[in-house]
Write a structure and sequence with these properties.
- This protein is mainly alpha-helical.
- It has one domain (3-270).
- It has twelve helices and no strands.
- It has helices at 3-17, 20-29, 35-69, 71-95, 109-113, 115-120, 122-153, 155-184, 187-197, 200-212, 218-246, 250-270.
- Helix 1 (3-17) runs antiparallel to helix 7 (122-153) and helix 2 packs parallel to helix 8.
- The longest helix is centred in the N-terminal third of the chain and has 35 residues, at 35-69.
- The two termini are 23 Å apart.
- The model is unreliable at 99-103 (pLDDT under 50).
Length: 272
């Protein structure tokens, strides 16, 4: 596998993962949550992920598996792999405590409201902060694999997915910072722990590469791509869109969703 392509894919994954730091900065510096911005951003990210998963990634997975296994077995394999990706994402979401789930709704205003709590019960809140950081790492791991795999297949596709993941990592970084702030009472510590949690995405990319690099062929590529499509569809439907609507701007979420699909459609047409 071409070393430059691997480095490029890893760089995109690192960029997407560390975008949690932008959300952390919002939590550190802002006094008020821009709910309209977050609603549009999450909707846009979901639109990109759903469109590219169903229109491009699923089709590429199907073509690869049909080439490697034949028409009938290839079609069965892509469908089974797609739903395996959904089940994997659902299992991760189920295992992560809701307290530390990065897609639970939080706002900047909570940080000031929680200052007294952090002083009164610092030990238990510190434990909560550590659990939160671990939860974020678990959530971000498959997203890193998704970005990396897409980038290896097609650099322009990888850029689009990296941007979508980065956009949804912005409000995620904000949501991570708040429970960590509960534990420490310190905005800077909240920022750095949230920022570092984004490293789980390049870690997912690296581990995925080490596990599958020797076995990359039509079948491996097709299965991985179908799993990635399932993961991204689940994340969009179960996490991004419900969280966006909870910010109270339902119409903006839908507009962001359609905008994300439109941008992704045009970008795919430009690089046919």
């Amino acid at each position: 596998m071409d070393a430059k392509a691997v480095l490029f894919a890893f760089g995109l994954t690192l960029f997407a993962g560390l975008s949690t730091g932008i959300g952390s900065l919002i939590a550190l510096l802002s006094k008020k949550t821009n709910k309209r911005f977050l609603s549009v951003t999450l909707g846009f990210s979901a639109g990109v992920m759903i469109y590219v998963s169903m229109i491009d990634i699923f089709a590429k997975a199907k073509n690869s598996l049909v080439a490697g296994l034949g028409v009938q077995r290839g079609n069965w394999a892509v469908v089974l792999s797609f739903f395996a990706g959904i089940l994997l994402a659902a299992a991760i979401d189920r295992l992560v405590p809701s307290l530390g789930n990065p897609h639970e709704l939080h706002t900047v205003e909570e940080m000031d409201e929680s200052a007294d709590k952090a002083q009164k019960n610092s030990k238990s809140l510190m434990r909560m902060g550590i659990m939160s950081a671990l939860a974020i790492a678990i959530h971000n791991f498959p997203e890193g694999l998704a970005t990396f795999t897409s980038s290896l297949s097609k650099p322009t596709l990888g850029i689009a997915i990296a941007i979508a993941v980065a956009l949804h990592n912005i409000p995620e970084g904000l949501a991570v910072s708040i429970p960590v702030y509960f534990a420490t009472g310190n905005r800077k510590k909240a920022f750095w722990m949230s920022f570092m949690s984004g490293l789980a995405e390049p870690a997912g990319a690296l581990i995925g590469y080490l596990l599958f690099a020797r076995f990359f062929n039509d079948i491996t590529f097709g299965v991985l791509f179908a799993i990635v499509a399932g993961i991204m569809v689940f994340i969009s439907l179960d996490e991004l869109l419900p969280t966006a609507r909870e910010y109270g701007e339902a119409h903006l979420t839908v507009y962001g969703l359609i905008g994300g699909m439109a941008v992704m459609a045009v970008s795919l047409l430009l690089f046919i």
